[in-house]
Amino acid sequence: MEAKAEITVRSFSEADEEILRLTEKSAEGTARKDGILYLRGGGKIFSCEDNAEGRRLMEALSGETGTKTEDAFWKRVIRGTVNPHDAARFGIRDEVPRCVILFRPIQESGQGIQREMVPVEETDRILEFESGEAALILCMKKRSAEEAKEFAGAAAETMESEAGISCTAGIGRTAGNLREIAGSFRDAEAAIETGSRHGIPGPVYDFSEQTLERLADLIPSGKIEAYRREMISPEAEKVLTEETIETIRAFFRNDLNLTTTAKELFIHRNTILYRLEKVRKATGLDLRKFEEAAVFRILMDFQQK
């Protein structure tokens, strides 16, 4: 026990940036620099002198943290490299449905996502990155897509209320095996970027729910801008007040359902009809019709870019 006192422990926010990079790149979560041995594990950086006694202590410690090499395995997986031998060594099954939820701090405050505030089960895995982000590999065997979304929202709310960390969460499509997890990770990254770019209310962005936005991104911005000028005149812009835009967003969120939208906004459905009619007269688009609502959605999103 006395020898273990020679080990220094630092959180990621306290550790040297170069050491964070070196240990993250290492398959074993270790690094050496200037006669010091470093170990990454359990959301912390451990260090001690790089000698025989230090190496013995670090080897023992790596077994106690239980996260070093397995974290490195999962980080390789989300980057697209799967080693079946390592999967077998860690007792990780291949063809299990999993999705990636990426938690990203909204502001660069020097404080990353708090691993311990994301309640994971034995079948899940959460990975921390020096950027402050954290990726949760969530087992979907007994979870629905809606439950995954609720989980992400609850985790983001917990970090906000208990640690003061505002974050967004991107959810990737469910992967059927280990090799597909890298795609789910890319989906999660794209979900946050697409949601932010199109002004979609957060903090949770689900890649599977962003089909329209991703299709809109394929249209050259010059063409959308020209069509917007054609459809929405300067006079029409005056009708699109912040209150009206929020009403329209709620209307779209509730699948063009007047009654549900009225309940969400605590207003009479006739008030919504009145605002939608003003928009129709100003733009020629009847937002109660799906095709015209889709056109307006694309034009409105372009304004947000």
Description:
By secondary structure, the chain is of the alpha+beta class. The protein folds into 3 domains: 3-66, no CATH class; 72-209, Reverse transcriptase/Diguanylate cyclase domain (Alpha-Beta Plaits, 2-Layer Sandwich), CATH 3.30.70.270; 219-304, Arc Repressor Mutant, subunit A, CATH 1.10.10.2840. Helix content is 49%, strand content 15%. The chain is built from 13 helices and 9 strands. A 5-stranded mixed beta sheet has the order 6-7-5-8-9, sandwiched between helices. β6 (125-128) and β7 (134-139) form a beta hairpin. It starts with 7 loop residues before the first strand and ends with a helix. Residues 1-5 have low confidence and may be disordered.
Note the beta-strand portion.
Answer: 15-25%
The first-level CATH class name of the largest domain? Alpha Beta
Q: What is the first-to-last residue Cα distance?
A: 58 Å
Low-confidence stretches: 1-5
Order of helices and strands: EHEEEHHHEEEHEHEHHHHHHH
Which term fits the overall shape? Answer: elongated
By CATH, the topology of the largest domain is Alpha-Beta Plaits
Q: Please tally the helical runs, counting DSSP H or I stretches of 4 or more residues.
A: 13
Please outline the major beta sheet. Answer: 5 strands, mixed
Q: Mind telling me which CATH architecture of the largest domain this is?
A: 2-Layer Sandwich
Order of neighbouring strands in the sheet with most strands: 6-7-5-8-9
Mean model confidence by pLDDT: 84
Oligomeric state, counting identical vs distinct chains: single chain
Structural class based on helices, strands and sheet pairing? alpha+beta
Number of domains: 3
